[in-house]
Amino acid sequence: MRFLIIILVLACWSCSESKPTNRLPEDQMAEILADIHLDEGKISSMNIVSADTSVILYNRLERATLKRHGVDSTVFAKSFASYVQEPKDFIDLYQKVNAALAKKQQKR
User: Fold this and answer.
1) Among 14, 50, 85, 93, which has the highest number of CB atoms less than 10 A from its own CB?
2) Confidence (pTM)
């Protein structure tokens, strides 16, 4: 019986509508993700044969991008995971990422 009560309490708690407060703001995340996607495009256009080399380059560019935005990689990863867990928030975030990419493309 206690087990059933604990399961019900956990189920109710997990369904609560509270938004995580420890994640990066949507606008800041969108700018970071836009820059990361641009970095991915740069690496793709290099036509690097070795996947290992591509991963190394990507990791370096990602670290530089996060440093430029003043964000720690752990904070970024936790924030990204938080957005992924909330589908509506994730969709809203990527709409802003697309807008940021379009804005950066117009500047070029």
Assistant:
1) 93
2) 0.78
Residue 82, CA distances (Å) to 64, 85, 91 in order: 22, 5, 13
Q: Considering only CA atoms, which of 29, 11, 94 is closest in space to residue 65?
A: 29
Residues 6+ away with beta carbon under 8 Å from 39: 58, 61, 62, 65
Look at the block and give the residue holding tokens 């800041």: 28
Domain boundaries, the chain: 22-107
